[in-house]
Structures are given as structure tokens and as C-alpha cells.
């Protein structure tokens, strides 16, 4: 029955592919002519970029650029670095979304088609660029994608046959020493949509402030990260990134430039603080709270499963994970990863805490490691500032070469059911998956009313599972995706039936995603989406309202025609 319905949906959409139920696709008669693209380019002062797939230098039969063995070798050597992708207007970091097209790791004779990538991008630097782009995509019924860094795991910042509004070069940063509103008086930072953590953190640090940012230095501060919630090493101390926002400047689908704050367009403000990127409007700038710099204690720890029984190894993991609860209550955060071979903590941090405090919390774990004579490495340091701690103890993040799924683990599960939780981890690790956790407490402080998934407020750990991505074997990748959806995530869901998943770090095939990613905020978020985007200009996979659309096999985006089902 389900199969029949989805067949009908696809059939109906295909049979009317050039009608208004689908976005205009490059091969369609409605696609703008070269002259129309040129005219548009003139309107936006030459900021239109036609996509050249990044991997095209690796393929002999491509229409974009010349094949070069040396350029290809050098591209392969830097493929893992986020900057290889975020400096381009089209390359998504999550490898699945390149659909094996122009894959630099395949043979040089393999095909190189633009396929799943955006066709064009506007290198936007102003509200006017946003407005012109929104006008053009609506005039020509073209799929619009908002692209910032391209970090998104769920493919929300890429799309076939789309025009990307590329926000990367909106780099303005201003430190506001005394922001004043009815709800907050104090220091703040105002950033353009393209500002990344490493830039925002550096600007704040110059004035002796810190801000809530993520682990990966290159994620977009005002983009999908904060709009989707945003965790990081300061998130127990100060709350999630979405909890810090004071106001947004947003351009809505009809081209209007609005301020969204608790005092103006408060519903849009509420939605943008945690309700997911790419959905309600295009953010031009964000203003968020910053805090005075603070002394920070940080440690890293690794240990190996070698030489001890599996129960001993997982017992130590259990001790460590359970022992983090009081640490997160004191404002600490731990970022860790377990496989069936080793456990790594990079790092565990107490902003504002002392070395003695952190040592005391880690002591029971270290004692077990010594007692079992397990091999481990352990470094601890107390730094005068968070900035120095972050620089010393936070390894540069690479592109995640994994297919992921996620689940938030409530505190009750860690406190009262940790043996079942560890048993689930053990089973998951035996399937060859990595388990990464961010142990934190996102509700130490008064929690503002915003669209952050309410499950965040009960959690002790945000879990992300990863299976390897194979650049050479689509069958293996599909198998791993099914494993994630049907086996691995359900092992955690069974233990945490009332929880959810972090919409930025989750399985693209998550069943019932509306509930799992947004919980009881979904209906309100849908209403806000329809108020500010009544014609459904903004679409992002698993974004609010996206169930109205379906992507056909070639990537064409079509409306699901409910009345005809
Ligand atoms: C290596 C790595 C490390 C990560 N570490 C963390 C972490 O520590 N903490 C954490 O919480 N998350 C983390 N993430 C997840 C991260 O929050 C998401 O990938 C997020 O979507 C990135 O946002 P972006 O704007 O940089 O990326 P993009 O992929 O460019 O955009 C993501 C989404 O936001 C939308 N968007 C972007 N800019 C705008 C805008 N101006 N207006 C409206 N919509 C916009 C896009 O349309 C898309 O839907 C990590 C991801 C990776 C790959
Ligand atoms: C847009 O115009 C600029 C400046 O003339 C040019 O460099 C660029 O190639 C044009 N873009 C496209 C897609 O033609
Ligand atoms: C080159 O690619 C085109 C389409 O992209 C295809 O039709 C053609 O067969 C390819 N040629 C070779 C030699 O592979
Ligand atoms: C993805 O690849 C498959 C197999 O080559 C192809 O049929 C499909 O059209 C591609 N989809 C997109 C969006 O490029
Ligand atoms: C985008 O615009 C910025 C200036 O705003 C410029 O420095 C950069 O080179 C442009 N990028 C591309 C790919 O055109
Ligand atoms: C685009 O701009 C033109 C000129 O200002 C205007 O007439 C038209 O209504 C706009 N179209 C859309 C879809 O916003
Ligand atoms: C910030 O502004 C408020 C209200 O205008 C004022 O009361 C306060 O003293 C100012 N604080 C600083 C540090 O300047
Ligand atoms: C601990 O391990 C070391 C080196 O692996 C070994 O020499 C030593 O005998 C072990 N000690 C115990 C008590 O097992
Ligand atoms: C732990 O921190 C030390 C000191 O900063 C560093 O040299 C080491 O590489 C780090 N280890 C890991 C696994 O990150
Ligand atoms: C990132 O990738 C580089 C090159 O592949 C590698 O040397 C480095 O160890 C990786 N860093 C991390 C944190 O995995
Ligand atoms: C754990 O169980 C105890 C006893 O049933 C209960 O009092 C406590 O509230 C539970 N802890 C959590 C976090 O639910
Ligand atoms: C870990 O799991 C992998 C995959 O199932 C398996 O090949 C490996 O032997 C396991 N290692 C340990 C230490 O159990
Ligand atoms: C691809 O992966 C599948 C599933 O794991 C495996 O059966 C197949 O042999 C692999 N193909 C190649 C060419 O390695």
C-alpha cells in the first residue's frame, strides 16, 4: 500500500513535470535562456557563477575544465579539508550528495555530470543580491538553495537544477559593547551570514569575549548551525547557540528585509532560533550574546580495548560516560568517540573550572585504566582563556567521511539505565560503527522560549553514529544507510522512546522526522513557515514544510499533489 502511494506520487509528478507542480529543470522549455541568465548576471553586477564541479579535473570526459593528473592528485590530497569545499559555490561536504558524479576518487574515465549539484550560484554580498535572486528564482520557477559553508549532513545546502544563494562572502563582524533591548543589556556580536566560527571567535577574543560556537572551526556561525540549535564546548555553561541570539536580519521570500527579535516579528525570531536552516527566510545577519573570557580547564584522553576483555573495556566507558553528569552540571562539556577498538575524548572542558576540579572528576576513570593496566594517554591543562584552551586542545576538524545518524540520550537513561545504554553502544560498535557523543547539559540556565527541539533540554548526551562512506561503492553505502535506519538508530530509540534527534546531525532517512527533529514545535513552525513563505520558495530536506515536496530520481523537485492521492 505504501509502495502504491509513492508510485502514484512519482507518476503524477512526472506526468506533469513541466507544469507548475515541479520546479523548472535545466532540460525543460521553461529554463531561462542563456540571454536571460546573462541579463540576470548584469542585474546582480556580475556575481553569477556557473557551476564547475570540483572533481572535474579528475575526469577526461568532462565539459567543464581540462583533465589534469597533477591537479587531480593535489585535489585528492586536500579533499578531507573543509576549506576545499566551503571556498566553492557548489561542493557539498557530505559525500553522499555528490551522487558519485565527478567523484575524484573514481577512474579518470568515469562520468562527470553536474547532476546533483546546484547549476548556478549568486555570490551574494548584500540584501539587494538576496532580493534579486529571490525575484529571479520565483519569476522562472527555479529551485532555490541557500548555501553557506556546505557543511550540512542532510544535503540541505545542495540540490539538482537549483540556483544557490551563496552567503559565504557576507563577512561583516561588529562587536557591540553594550547591546540594549527590553530582554538583554550587555555585550554582543553582529555577524554577516557568511561568518565562520574561527572568524567570529577571533573578533570576540580581541575584545576579550567568548561566544557559543561549535567544535569544527569552519562551520557557519549564523547559518544552519545556530538556526538548527548549535552545541559546543560552551553550551553547558551558557546554553545552545540558538539560545544566545538577540536578533536576526532576514529577507523573506517576497524580498522584504525584516528584523526578527523578541520585539519585532517575534514569531519569525522564535522559529529561526532552533527551527532549522533554509526554511523560513534568508538570514542576512545575526546578533548574539557574547561573554567575558574565562579561565578554562581542558583534558584529552584516549584508551584502547587491546589487552582487556570487552566487558572491562565497555565498563570503563560506562564509568566515564556516567561520571560526566556532575561535570556537565558544573558547566562542562565532553566530546568523545567510541569504537570497539578505542575510546577518545577530544576534549573534555570546564569553562571557568579549575584543573583540580577536572582531575577529581576524571580520577575514577584513570584509576580503572591503571588498575586494569590498560594503555592510555592523558593530557590536562589549565588555560587563562577559553581561546587558548580551544587552540591547544581542539584538533582541526576534517570533512566527516561517514554516513551518520543521531539520537539524543536523556539524562534519565544515563542515570538509571546506563548498562542497557552501554550494551546498545557495544552492539552498535560491533557492526563497525563509530559512536560519538557530546555530553552536555543545555538547561543549566533559564531556557529561553524558542524553537529548539524540546528534547535538547532533557539530554545528557547528543549521540552521532557513523558508518564508513565508501567513495568507490554505492551498494556498500546504501547498505550502510539501511543499517543506520533499520538497525543502529532503533537500538537507541528503543531505550529513549520519548527523546528526539538533533536536526543538524541525524539520519537523512529518519522515519517520522517531523516529530523526532522538532517534536511538538512542528505545527507552530509549519504555521510560521506558511505565514512568511506562503508560496513555499524555501525547501530543505527534512526542513519544516518539506513533506510537501518530493525529489525525483534525477533530482527534480516536485510538489506532492495531495488532492490527487
Ligand atoms: C565537521 C563538522 C563538525 C560539526 N560540528 C558541529 C558542532 O560542534 N556543533 C553543532 O551544533 N553542529 C556541528 N555540525 C553540524 C552543523 O551545525 C551543520 O552542518 C550546519 O547545518 C552547518 O551550517 P552551515 O550554515 O555552516 O552549513 P550549510 O550546509 O551551508 O547550511 C546548512 C543549512 O542552513 C541553511 N542556511 C545557511 N545559511 C543560511 C542563511 N543565511 N539563511 C537561512 N538559511 C541558511 C542552508 O540552507 C542549509 O539548510 C558539524 C558539521 C560538520 C560537517
Ligand atoms: C557574470 O558576469 C561576470 C562579469 O562579467 C563574469 O565574469 C561571469 O563569468 C558571469 N557569469 C556567468 C554565469 O556567465
Ligand atoms: C562522454 O560523456 C557524454 C555525456 O556526458 C557521453 O554521452 C559520452 O558517451 C562520453 N564519452 C566517452 C568516451 O565516455
Ligand atoms: C544519481 O545517480 C543515479 C545513478 O547514476 C542517476 O540515475 C540519478 O539520476 C542521479 N541523480 C542525480 C540527482 O543526479
Ligand atoms: C565572490 O565575491 C567576493 C567579493 O565579495 C570575491 O572576493 C570572490 O572572489 C568572489 N568569488 C567567486 C568565486 O566569484
Ligand atoms: C520581480 O521584480 C519585478 C521588477 O521589480 C517585479 O515587477 C516582479 O513582480 C518581481 N517578481 C517577483 C516574483 O517578485
Ligand atoms: C549599558 O547600557 C545600560 C542601559 O543603557 C546602562 O544602564 C549600563 O550602565 C551600560 N553598561 C555599560 C557597561 O556601559
Ligand atoms: C602492565 O603492562 C606492562 C606492559 O604492557 C607489563 O610489563 C606489566 O607486567 C603489566 N602489569 C600488570 C600488573 O599486568
Ligand atoms: C592532547 O593534547 C595534547 C596537548 O595539547 C596534544 O599534544 C595531543 O595531540 C592531544 N591528543 C589528542 C588525541 O588530541
Ligand atoms: C585530517 O586529515 C588530515 C589529512 O588527511 C590528517 O593528517 C589529519 O590527521 C586529520 N585530522 C583529524 C582530526 O582527523
Ligand atoms: C532515577 O531513578 C530514581 C529512582 O527511581 C529516581 O528518583 C530518579 O529521579 C531517576 N533519575 C532521573 C534522572 O530520572
Ligand atoms: C570490531 O568490529 C569489527 C567489525 O565488526 C570487527 O572486525 C573487529 O574485529 C572488532 N574489533 C574488536 C576489538 O572487537
Ligand atoms: C560493494 O559493496 C558490496 C556490499 O558490501 C559488496 O558485496 C561488493 O563486493 C562491493 N563491490 C566492490 C566492487 O567492492
Give a brief rundown of this model.
The chain has 565 residues and is an alpha+beta fold.
Describe the structure.
It is a single chain. The chain is an alpha+beta fold and 565 residues long. The strands form five sheets. Strands 15-12-14-13-17-18-16 form a seven-stranded antiparallel β-sheet. Strands 5-6-10-8-9 form a five-stranded antiparallel β-sheet. Strand 19 and strand 20 form a beta hairpin. The chain has 17 helices and 20 strands. The protein folds into three domains: 26-166, no CATH class; 173-292, Uridine Diphospho-n-acetylenolpyruvylglucosamine Reductase, domain 3 (2-Layer Sandwich), CATH 3.30.465; 296-518, Vanillyl-alcohol Oxidase, Chain A, domain 3. It has helices spanning 2-15, 34-43, 69-78, 82-86, 127-139, 197-206, 221-228, 235-238, 266-272, 310-329, 355-371, 386-393, 411-416, 418-430, 474-495, 513-518, 522-532; strands spanning 48-50, 120-123, 143-147, 162-166, 173-180, 185-192, 209-210, 245-251, 257-260, 282-289, 291-292, 296-304, 333-338, 342-351, 376-383, 402-410, 434-439, 459-468, 549-551, 557-559. Bound molecules: flavin-adenine dinucleotide and 2-acetamido-2-deoxy-beta-D-glucopyranose (12 copies). Residues 49, 89, 123, 125, 169 line the site of one 2-acetamido-2-deoxy-beta-D-glucopyranose.
Amino acid at each position: 500500500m505504501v509502495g502504491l502511494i509513492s508510485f502514484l506520487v512519482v507518476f503524477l509528478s512526472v506526468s506533469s513535470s513541466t507544469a507548475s507542480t515541479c520546479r523548472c529543470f535545466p532540460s525543460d522549455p521553461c529554463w531561462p535562456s542563456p540571454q536571460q541568465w546573462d541579463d540576470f548576471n548584469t542585474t546582480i553586477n556580475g556575481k553569477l557563477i556557473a557551476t564547475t564541479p570540483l572533481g572535474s579535473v579528475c575526469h577526461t570526459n568532462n565539459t567543464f575544465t581540462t583533465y589534469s593528473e597533477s591537479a587531480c592528485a593535489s585535489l585528492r590530497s586536500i579533499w578531507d579539508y573543509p576549506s576545499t569545499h566551503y571556498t566553492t559555490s557548489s561542493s557539498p561536504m557530505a559525500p553522499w550528495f555528490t551522487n558519485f558524479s565527478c567523484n575524484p576518487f573514481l577512474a579518470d574515465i568515469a562520468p562527470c555530470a553536474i547532476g546533483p549539484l546546484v547549476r548556478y550560484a549568486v555570490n551574494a554580498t548584500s540584501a539587494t543580491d538576496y532580493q534579486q535572486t529571490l525575484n529571479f528564482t520565483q519569476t522562472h520557477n527555479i529551485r532555490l538553495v541557500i548555501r553557506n559553508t556546505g557543511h550540512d549532513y542532510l544535503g540541505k545546502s545542495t540540490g539538482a537544477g537549483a540556483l544557490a544563494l551563496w552567503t559565504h562572502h557576507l563577512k561583516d563582524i561588529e562587536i557591540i559593547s553594550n547591546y540594549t533591548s527590553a530582554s538583554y543589556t550587555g555585550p554582543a556580536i553582529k555577524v554577516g551570514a557568511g561568518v565562520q566560527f574561527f572568524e567570529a571567535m577571533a573578533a570576540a577574543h580581541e575584545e576579550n569575549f567568548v561566544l557559543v560556537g561549535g567544535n569544527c572551526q569552519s562551520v557557519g556561525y549564523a547559518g544552519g548551525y545556530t538556526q538548527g540549535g548549535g552545541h559546543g564546548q560552551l553550551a553547558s555553561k551558557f546554553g545552545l547557540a540558538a539560545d544566545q541570539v538577540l536578533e536576526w536580519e532576514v529577507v523573506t521570500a517576497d524580498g522584504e528585509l525584516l528584523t526578527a527579535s523578541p520585539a519585532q516579528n517575534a514569531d519569525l525570531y522564535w522559529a529561526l532560533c532552533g527551527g532549522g536552516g533554509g526554511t523560513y527566510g534568508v538570514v542576512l545577519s545575526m546578533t548574539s550574546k557574547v561573554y567575558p573570557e574565562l579561565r578554562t580547564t581542558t583534558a584529552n584522553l584516549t584508551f584502547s580495548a587491546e589487552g582487556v576483555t570487552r566487558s572491562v573495556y565497555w565498563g570503563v566507558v560506562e564509568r566515564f560516560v556516567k561520571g560526566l553528569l556532575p561535570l556537565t552540571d558544573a558547566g562542562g562539556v565532553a566530546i568523545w568517540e567510541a569504537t570497539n577498538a578505542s575510546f577518545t575524548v577530544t576534549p573534555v572542558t570546564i569553562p571557568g573550572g579549575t584543573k583540580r576540579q577536572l582531575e577529581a572528576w576524571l580520577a575514577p576513570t584513570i584509576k580503572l585504566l591503571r588498575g586494569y593496566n590498560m594503555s592510555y594517554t592523558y593530557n590536562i591543562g589549565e588555560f587563562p582563556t577559553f581561546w587558548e584552551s580551544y587552540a591547544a586542545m581542539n584538533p582541526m576538524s576534517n570533512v566527516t567521511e561517514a554516513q551518520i545518524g543521531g539520537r539524543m540520550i536523556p539524562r534519565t537513561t544515563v542515570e538509571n539505565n546506563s548498562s542497557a545504554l552501554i550494551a546498545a553502544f557495544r552492539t552498535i560498535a560491533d557492526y563497525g560503527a563509530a559512536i560519538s557523543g557530546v555530553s552536555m547539559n543545555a538547561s543549566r540556565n533559564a531556557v529561553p522560549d524558542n524553537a529548539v527541539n524540546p528534547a535538547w533540554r532533557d539530554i545528557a548526551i547528543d549521540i552521532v553514529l557513523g558508518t564508513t562512506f565508501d567513495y568507490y561503492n554505492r551498494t556498500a553505502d546504501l547498505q550502510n544507510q539501511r543499517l543506520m535506519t533499520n538497525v543502529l538508530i532503533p537500538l537507541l530509540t528503543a531505550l529513549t522512546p520519548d527523546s528526539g534527534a538533533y536536526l543538524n546531525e541525524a539520519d537523512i532517512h529518519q522515519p517520522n522526522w517531523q516529530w523526532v527533529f522538532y517534536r511538538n514545535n512542528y505545527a507552530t513552525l509549519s504555521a510560521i513557515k506558511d505565514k512568511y513563505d506562503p508560496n513555499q520558495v524555501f525547501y530543505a530536506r527534512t526542513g519544516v514544510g518539506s513533506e510537501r515536496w518530493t525529489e525525483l530520481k534525477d533530482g527534480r523537485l516536485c510538489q506532492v499533489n495531495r488532492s490527487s492521492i
